[in-house]
């Protein structure tokens, strides 16, 4: 019989710290960390590089069959996204790609295209998977579901610091980080398909007043209540 794997779903809005927290918790548990936002970003990147409007369903749909997406992990558990044989991870974090990813992710054809790819990873590895619809749609039977949030101001500040660390141009003002984040929350929460919302059986965790380490510890505690590793 096929070995059963553990799956942990972490959903929440952008900038809630999901990726850092999930990656560190996965490393602690020896699980694979899967950042599903990165594959929506990869589709967005492909659309932008071909001059396709990320909201144009027909054009994006026509693009999908030519996309060969692959996830790989470095020794220390960092996920890389390969598109048609090239590692495009370094191109995925710009504000332009963030907005385009939010737009392509509202298209049912894109969600359908990426659904099985996400499920295959969870079937074959112990995973902590982060996204918007992991607990509700992708892995409805996940062993633990966590919905991670923080106030928009706290999230914008964290995102801004992250962008600063990566040396994103100075012109990217703190205020526009907040406005972009709120616009993306709106779009991700109000789309018709797989909107951002907590699963009925998710544990809600607000990290606004927590340090990174406190958030990681809180997540690990929730996971270890249900999962013995
Ligand atoms: O997590 P992120 O910021 O990298 O995600 C980028 C966009 O992708 C986000 O605005 C919404 C979309 N997304 C999604 O719809 N479903 C997911 N499971 C993950 C991301």
Q: What report would you give on this structure?
A:
With 229 residues, the protein is α/β, with parallel strands linked by helices. Helix content is 48%, strand content 16%. The protein is built from nine helices and eight strands. The chain has helices at 18-29, 37-49, 57-63, 95-104, 108-124, 134-138, 152-165, 174-190, 212-226; strands at 7-11, 32-35, 69-73, 79-83, 86-87, 127-131, 144-149, 203-206. The strands form two sheets. It has a five-stranded parallel beta sheet, sandwiched between helices. The chain has a three-stranded antiparallel beta sheet with strand order 3-4-5, with helices on one face. Strand 4 and strand 5 (86-87) form a beta hairpin. Helix 2 (37-49) crosses helix 4 and helix 4 runs parallel beside helix 8 (174-190). The longest helix is centred in the middle third of the chain and has 17 residues, at 108-124. The chain is globular. The two termini are 20 Å apart. It binds 2'-deoxycytidine-5'-monophosphate. The site of 2'-deoxycytidine-5'-monophosphate has 14 residues, from helix 2, helix 4 and helix 8.
Secondary-structure element order, N to C = EHEHHEEEHHEHEHHEH
Helix content: 40-55%
Structural class: alpha/beta
The ligands bound in this entry are:
2'-deoxycytidine-5'-monophosphate
General shape: globular
Strand order of the largest sheet: 2-6-1-7-8
Distance between the termini: 20 Å
Radius of gyration: 17 Å
Low-confidence stretches: none
What portion of residues belong to β-strands?
15-25%
- The overall strand count is 8
